[in-house]
Every structure is written in C-alpha cells, then in structure tokens.
C-alpha cells in the first residue's frame, strides 16, 4: 500500500498536451500522460515512490490534483486543503499604496506569485500582454533599487543559470512569451561570468519572435551598469 495516494480529477484536468506541467514536475514519474483520454493518470506501479512533497500540486493551474496520506491528511484539489506556497496569485499594488505610505514602509512592486521559473505556469492570467522581467536570483539582493527601478510594472521570473536545472527553461520562456503576446522582456543579471548564460538562454529561447529584449547588468557592489 502506498504511503501517499495521488488523485486526479480528470474533468478538471486540462490535459497533458494543453498543460502537462504535473508530468514534468513529478520527479518520480508517477504522473504520466493518458493517451486514451488526453489527460494525465497515475502510474500505480510507481505510486509507492511518492514523497508527498507536492511538486505536482504546485504547478497545476486548476487544482486537479490531490495527495492523501495514510494518516488521512490531504493536500490540493478544489475540495482538499490548499497548498498556498506556490499557488498562483496576483497583487493589486494600488490598493495597498496608501496603507504602506501611512506606515512609512517601502512598498513591494511584486505583481505575481510564484516567481521561480520552474514553478511558473505559462497559462497564468497575469502574463497576458505583460512586460516580463527575468532576473538572476542574486540580482534583487545585490541591487537595492530593484523594486522601483527594474521590477515596477513587470511580471517577474527568477532563475540561476549556474545552479538550476535549466534544460526546460528555453521551452518554458518561449511558451510564456508566445502564449501571452509579451512584447518586452528585460533580463537582469550580475557581472559574474556564469550569469551571462541567462541572457544567452533567453535570446535563444525567443529567437524568431517579435520581442524587444533589454539587458540590465548589476555590479557586485550593487550598481546598475547597463
């Protein structure tokens, strides 16, 4: 008997051709395409390997997945307990501005959640006709004016070309831009050599598309150089 059981709502599921993000997210290859229905299904021979961490739940845009443990705990799905850590969210910053000013706090310009490129869903509504910024992980920490000068008004994706498994990044970036009529992409990187790989990756991913790509470079002491 599996320690964790994965349930899939086939009526809610968008299908592995339209979405398929859960198939890619499941490192144990438990969730697989169902050729008969066009949806996804659980490979019962592998279900015993489920670690229960819910990477598949994090990327599903419609809540079609649910994980239940032997103890009765459930996570995901429209009727189960949500997993908010990577749930898709948009933020209306204009509604929060007056409150932030009254409290003398610096206002965040973040418009979307999640932000890590692996977790982003190309079908998320906040991408539609948006300006996109793809930033190396270190940039927001090194550049003190990141929110006001680079992030404001843009949807964010973060990635590290040195430490991340980037084999699927080119396809993900192209899907995000093509599906959502994105015309402006900013790539923010550090001056270290490995960071230039992110700018190169974005250029290759968007080759042939009508997109304006702007490069911003941050020095190690936090200065905007480019």
Spatial sequence of strands, sheet with the most strands: 9-8-10-11
Round the Cα radius of gyration to an integer and report it: 19 Å
Secondary structure: helix percent: 10-25%
Number of strands: 11
**Euclidean distance between termini CA atoms:** 57 Å
CATH fold node name of the largest domain: Rossmann fold
The 3D shape can be described as globular
Count every helix, treating DSSP H or I runs of 4 or more residues as helices: 7
Structural class computed from helices and strand pairing: alpha/beta
SSE series: EHEEHEEEHEEHHEHEHE
Low-confidence stretches: 79-86
Beta-strand portion reads 15-25%
- In round numbers, the mean pLDDT is 86
CATH class of the largest domain reads Alpha Beta
Q: How would a textbook summarize the main sheet?
A: 4 strands, parallel
Brief write-up:
By secondary structure, the protein is α/β, with parallel strands linked by helices. It is 23% helix and 22% strand.
Description:
Residues 4-36, 38-70 form the 4Fe-4S ferredoxin-type domain. With 226 residues, the chain is an alpha/beta fold. It folds into 2 domains: 4-86, Alpha-Beta Plaits (2-Layer Sandwich); 89-218, Rossmann fold (3-Layer(aba) Sandwich), CATH 3.40.50. The protein is 23% helix and 22% strand. It is built from 7 helices and 11 strands. It has helices spanning 21-25, 55-59, 93-102, 139-142, 146-151, 169-179, 196-205; strands at residues 4-8, 31-33, 40-42, 65-69, 74-76, 89-90, 112-113, 131-136, 154-159, 184-190, 212-218. The strands form 4 sheets. It has a 4-stranded parallel β-sheet. A hairpin with a 4-residue loop joins strand 4 and strand 5. Helix 6 (169-179) packs across helix 7. The longest helix is centred in the C-terminal third of the chain and has 11 residues, at 169-179. The model is unreliable at 79-86 (pLDDT under 50).
């Amino acid at each position: 008997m599996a320690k964790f059981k994965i349930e899939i709502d086939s009526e809610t599921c968008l299908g592995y051709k339209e979405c398929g993000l859960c198939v890619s997210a499941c490192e144990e290859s438990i969730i697989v395409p169902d050729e008969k229905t066009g949806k996804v299904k659980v490979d019962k021979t592998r279900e015993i390997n489920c670690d229960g961490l819910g990477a598949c739940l994090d990327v599903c845009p419609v809540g079609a997945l649910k994980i239940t443990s032997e103890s009765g705990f459930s996570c995901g799905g429209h009727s189960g307990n949500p997993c908010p850590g990577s749930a898709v969210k948009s933020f209306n910053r204009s509604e929060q501005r007056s409150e932030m000013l009254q409290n003398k706090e610096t206002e965040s310009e973040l418009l979307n959640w999640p932000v890590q490129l692996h977790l982003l869903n190309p079908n998320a509504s906040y991408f539609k006709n948006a300006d996109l910024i793809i930033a190396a992980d270190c940039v927001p920490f090194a550049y003190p004016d990141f929110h006001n000068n680079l992030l404001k008004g843009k949807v964010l994706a973060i990635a590290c070309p040195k430490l991340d498994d980037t084999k699927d990044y080119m396809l993900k970036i192209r899907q995000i831009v093509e599906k959502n009529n994105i015309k402006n992409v900013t790539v923010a990187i550090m001056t270290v050599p490995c960071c230039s790989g992110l700018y190169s990756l974005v250029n290759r991913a968007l080759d042939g598309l009508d997109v304006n790509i702007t490069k911003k470079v941050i020095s190690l002491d936090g200065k905007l150089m480019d």
